[in-house]
Every structure is written in C-alpha cells, then in structure tokens.
Amino acid sequence: NSSGPLTSSAAEDGERIMPSRIYVAPPDLHLLIEAGWIRLSRGPRENRHRPAIDPLFRSAARAYGPRVVGIVLTGLLDDGAVGLHVIKSEGGVAIVQDPKEAMFPSMPSSAMKAGEVDFVLRVSEIPQKILELAREPWKPIDLTRAKDIERAAVSPEGEKMSEELDERRMGKPSMFTCPECSGTLWEVQDGDLLRFRCRVGHAFSPEAVRDGYSDSVEGALWTAVRTLEESAALERRLSKQAAARGDLLSADRFGDVAIGREQQAAMIRDILMSKKRTEENADEIA
C-alpha cells in the first residue's frame, strides 16, 4: 500500500468489488469475477498454475464484456493468451507489454499470436493508457445477457463458464492425456488458437501441455534411475550370497546383471544431468 495511492489487499471470497482498489489473488486459489463480486475457487489448475490468469480474464469478460481491459506483461510460456482472446471477443480492450523490453517475452508474444490486441506498449506507457481508457464513456452492457449470466449454473470449478468456452462441451477428444491427472484431453481449435481441457477441468495451452510432458518425462527417467540402482544393489547382494555358498556360476551371473543395470542407470543419470546443465547455462545467458 505504500507504493502508490491505490489500496491493495488479498481478495476474499464474496467480497464486493470497490473502485480504486487492487485485489491480489491469494496463493493456491483462482480469482474469479462476477458482476459486482469476487469469487475465489480452488478449481483445477490451468496452464499448470493456480491462481492462473486465464480464469480471471475469462470470468471478467463474461461479467463485464466491453468494460474490461486485460493486460499481459512479461512472463514465461503463454498463460493469459486465451483469456485475452476472450476479452477481445467480448468487446473488451487487450494490452500487452512490448516483447522487446520484456525480461521474459513469451507471455506477451503468445498473447499477440493468439489474436488481435489493441495496444503494444512499454511498461512506462501502460498507466497513461489505462487512465485514458478509464475516462472514456462506458460501453453499454446487454442487460438480458447479464441476467442470463446471473442465472447460469456454477461449474464444478466454481466458474460460470459459457458452453462455447468449455472445451469439454465444444471440443473433441484428442490423442493426448492430461499431464496433471492422465485423463483424456478435449481439444478446441479456434482459428490459430488451440486449447485443451480434461474431464475434471485442468486446462492447457499447447505450450503448457508440452511443459507438463517434459516434467513427466524427467520424473519417469528419475524413477528409472532409482529402479535400476535398486535392482543392481539386489543383484550385488544375491551375487555375494551365491559366492559365500560356493556357487560361483550364479555369483558371476548376478554380478553381470548388476553391472548392466548400473551402466544403464549411469547413462540415464548423465542424460538428466546434462539436460540440467544445459538449462542452467541457458538461464545464465538469458
């Protein structure tokens, strides 16, 4: 609160939206917007995060339509790209930070690729643009549509989501599985924009699915290292027991298996560690 004239606070479920206030999503909760109110939801992660930007943008656009301004700043991957696309489709304004000045240009670049944006600005230029937009006359909201939203049933994720935005209703089963729960992913191709959602509600962009699979592959490889090393240790123990009772043929056979398992584990470990060193070097260069 000491960094500017606006009061900021962690959002609370059911809190009335007040002017000139900054609401911050609490940890591990999606921040959703309903007409006049804030909702918090521990619904499934989107793009592998909770809170995530897309549910906030999507719910704000559904509640306030052309009165919404969505802004995507520096960040990794592409969270916010789909949400900003929804804001534009509901008549709102889309602003992204100029990727050329962003420390991590992936999020603003992805938002620009996902659909039309109204302004690409440097961070220093964004406050003035917000003031200009706030001073413009409010665009009217279709009251019939607002009442339909108010009557809409809340999904298991805690969000009043229109059918056209729910991949499980409008999409088709894909060949991919959810990186979070391994369930089937439904996919929707909206122009150049591809998005996925599983039965329980985990939602992903292609980049988020890719990131999830990368983590799954790494986890599976470390599991393989552990299994191979445990198997080698067992073979060594059996070899010693066989040698102790004079069964040298069995002792050699167990020892050979142990050597093979240890070599396989070492090979996979080297692959994983070389990948880690490559990522660390890339971070240092960036």
How does the SSE layout of this entry go?
Layout: E1 7-10, E2 21-24, E3 30-34, E4 37-41, H1 53-64, E5 69-72, H2 81-89, E6 93-97, H3 106-114, E7 119-121, H4 126-135, H5 143-151, H6 167-170, E8 172-177, E9 184-190, E10 193-198, E11 203-204, H7 206-244, H8 248-285
Parallel strand pairs: 1-2, 5-6, 6-7
Antiparallel strand pairs: 3-4, 8-9, 9-10, 10-11
Radius of gyration: 26 Å
CATH class descriptor name of the largest domain: Alpha Beta
Low-confidence residue ranges = none
- Kindly identify the CATH topology of the largest domain: Rossmann fold
Q: If helices are DSSP runs of H or I spanning 4 or more residues, what is the number of helices? A: 8
Task: Give the averaged pLDDT, no decimals.
Answer: 87
Helix content: 40-55%
Output the structural class: alpha/beta
Q: Per the principal axes of the C-alpha atoms, what is the gross shape?
A: elongated
Structurally, the number of domains stands at 3
User: Largest sheet, described in full?
Assistant: 4 strands, antiparallel
Instruction: Output the helix-strand order.
Output: EEEEHEHEHEHHHEEEEHH
Tell me the strand percentage band: 15-25%
Q: What is the strand tally?
A: 11
Report what the structure shows.
By secondary structure, this protein is an alpha/beta fold. It folds into 3 domains: 7-147, Rossmann fold (3-Layer(aba) Sandwich), CATH 3.40.50.180; 166-204, no CATH class; 208-285. The protein contains 8 helices and 11 strands. The chain has helices spanning 53-64, 81-89, 106-114, 126-135, 143-151, 167-170, 206-244, 248-285; strands at 7-10, 21-24, 30-34, 37-41, 69-72, 93-97, 119-121, 172-177, 184-190, 193-198, 203-204. A 4-stranded antiparallel beta sheet has the order 8-9-10-11. The chain has a 3-stranded parallel beta sheet with strand order 5-6-7, with helices on both faces. β3 and β4 (37-41) form a beta hairpin. The longest helix is centred in the C-terminal third of the chain and has 39 residues, at 206-244.
